[in-house]
Each structure stands twice: as structure tokens, then as C-alpha cells.
Write a structure and sequence with these properties.
Layout: E1 2-7, H1 20-29, E2 34-38, E3 43-47, H2 51-61, E4 70-74, H3 75-83, E5 96-102, E6 121-126, E7 130-135, H4 145-153, E8 157-161, H5 162-173
Antiparallel strand pairs: 1-3, 1-4, 2-3, 5-7, 5-8, 6-7
Helix pairs in contact: 1-2, 3-5
Length: 191
């Protein structure tokens, strides 16, 4: 089953993170039938019988250089999260469209909808395993949707831009129609 591992705070080749070859070798050692890294942000597409257990085994194998969380979603779930991203009004001046992942089912997470106190984050859709929303960047400071969600849920989260997720799905599925599924503003193509 094809799945995607989203490692939190991983930047391949930088301090506190493994290099790409080490990461992919850990997936092979953990029993993944195949694994490929997408970009350098700790996103890995892999095939394993028990994806969550495989990703946790990878974390253990990397524990000398990397010590943080990993969230795993099936490729089908990633596709559904992208398809369910709420439409964004034309002319909306947001900076980025974001998806935040967490690994505990959170019933009644509607309290998250208020967004950040600084007004730089707007949460549009709250699911049991992910939140979709917008961030703004006036001047030099961008909203931090991950921090907002982490504080509200008191658990580790990791985020990717909608554009990154669309490119991942396009690459894996080989489909051009996933680039802007909701007729977005084009800003979702930045990451």
C-alpha cells in the first residue's frame, strides 16, 4: 500500500536531520518495499504492509541523528485531503495554503477554527487527522499554522503547503488535474 510519511522538522542534510541516502536506507532496513524522498522536507512516499509501524521503525533507526515525530497517511487519504481543501475566494491576499497533519484522532476539534491570535492564520477545514487553512505574511513575518494547531491540540504536528501536496500527488499519480483542484489563486503553487 502506497503511503506518505511526513517527518516533523526534517531538513535533509542539515543538522539534526539525516541525508537523503541515509533516510531511504532506513526505509529499506525497516522493510519498505520501496521508498522515494520528495523534496528535502522529510516527505517520503513508500510501500509497506504496515506503514505506521514501518515509519516508527525508521524513526528508531535514525534516532542518533533525528529525534522527532512522523505522521503517515495513505496516498488515497492525501488525495482526499487535497480534494477537500476549501475553495479560496479570488482576490484573497493570503500568502500560502497549508495542510497540518497530526497523528491522533481529535473529535470536536472545532475550537481550532478560531485560528491564531495574531490574525495571520485562518483554519478553513478541521478533520480528525488534518487541518487545512491559510496563512498571511505582512512584511517579514508569516503566520505559523503548525504552532497554532500544536498549541490547541497539545501534540506534535507537521505542515506542508497545498502546492507541495499537489506536486507530490501529480508526480506519484502522473495526473495534471491535481495542480489546482479548486481553481485556486495560483499562490498554492509556491512552497
Amino acid at each position: 500500500m502506497e503511503s506518505v510519511a511526513f517527518f516533523r522538522n526534517m531538513n535533509l542534510g542539515h543538522a539534526g536531520s539525516p541525508g537523503r541516502a541515509t533516510l531511504l536506507s532506513a526505509f529499506a532496513d525497516a522493510g519498505a518495499a520501496q521508498a522515494r524522498s520528495f523534496q528535502s522536507n522529510g516527505t517520503v512516499i513508500f510501500d509497506a504492509e504496515d506503514p505506521a509501524a514501518t515509519a516508527q521503525h525508521v524513526r528508531q533507526l535514525l534516532s542518533e541523528t533525528y529525534d522527532d515525530a512522523v505522521m503517515v497517511r495513505s496516498l488515497d487519504r492525501v488525495e482526499q485531503i487535497i480534494a477537500d481543501f476549501p475553495p479560496v475566494e479570488a482576490g484573497n491576499d493570503h500568502y500560502r495554503e497549508m495542510i497540518v497533519f497530526y497523528d491522533r484522532v481529535v473529535p470536536g476539534a472545532d475550537a481550532l477554527r478560531a485560528g491564531g491570535r495574531d490574525g495571520l492564520v485562518q483554519l478553513l477545514r478541521v478533520d480528525a487527522d488534518a487541518v487545512s487553512g491559510l496563512i498571511w505574511k505582512p512584511k517579514n513575518t508569516a503566520g505559523n499554522m503548525t504552532a497554532v494547531v500544536e498549541a490547541a491540540l497539545a501534540l506534535p504536528c507537521t505542515a506542508r503547503t497545498l502546492g507541495t501536496m499537489q506536486r507530490l500527488l501529480k508526480q506519484v499519480r502522473g495526473r495534471a488535474d491535481v495542480v489546482t483542484p479548486h481553481g485556486g489563486t495560483g499562490r498554492e503553487l509556491r512552497s
